[in-house]
Specification:
The chain contains seven helices and four strands, in the order ααααβααβββα. By secondary structure, the protein is of the alpha+beta class.
């Protein structure tokens, strides 16, 4: 991530330490992860200790300190989805992408995570890709849905 881009984000938030979380979210959004160089620049410009930034980056699940794929896949493994076959959906995603939860494929196409609930239990089992909910999934529907993402 270029320093000019980081500076633009910081300037947009008036270079105020009170906007630290928003700045980090915007960097994460535009880059898919938080590179150490970007966090150092934020630390310097906002005069916030790097330890505080690291604490925030590791506390919130929305942040990643490692590169993530272009498409974020979340599989609900909560009770309602579990009893309706979430394990089969997860197995299908793992087979199609070659990754396990918490991993990103080598092409930087997919990152996979399991979640405890996506808030749409009646649609279980549920897979979410880039915020789009795919409900009442079967292994065949899951494989077909993944093929639609470049």
């Amino acid at each position: 991530m270029e320093i000019e881009t980081i500076d633009r984000i910081i300037d947009k938030h008036h270079c105020e330490a009170s906007n630290l979380l928003q700045i980090m979210l915007e960097i994460q959004s535009s880059n898919n992860w938080l590179p150490k160089e970007a966090l150092k620049r934020v630390s310097e410009r906002l005069k916030v200790p790097m330890t505080r930034i690291q604490h925030i980056a590791t506390f919130y699940k929305a942040f990643s300190l490692v590169p993530k794929g272009r498409h974020k896949v979340h599989i609900c493994v909560g009770t309602a989805c579990h009893v309706r076959g979430a394990t089969r959906i997860l197995d299908t995603v793992e087979e199609a992408t070659g990754i396990k939860p918490g991993e990103t494929d080598l092409d930087m196409k997919f990152s996979l995570e399991t979640v405890n609930c996506l808030g749409c239990c009646a649609l279980g089992p549920v897979m979410e890709v880039d915020g789009k909910v795919h409900g009442k999934m079967s292994p065949v529907k899951t494989a077909e849905a993944l093929k639609t993402y470049e």
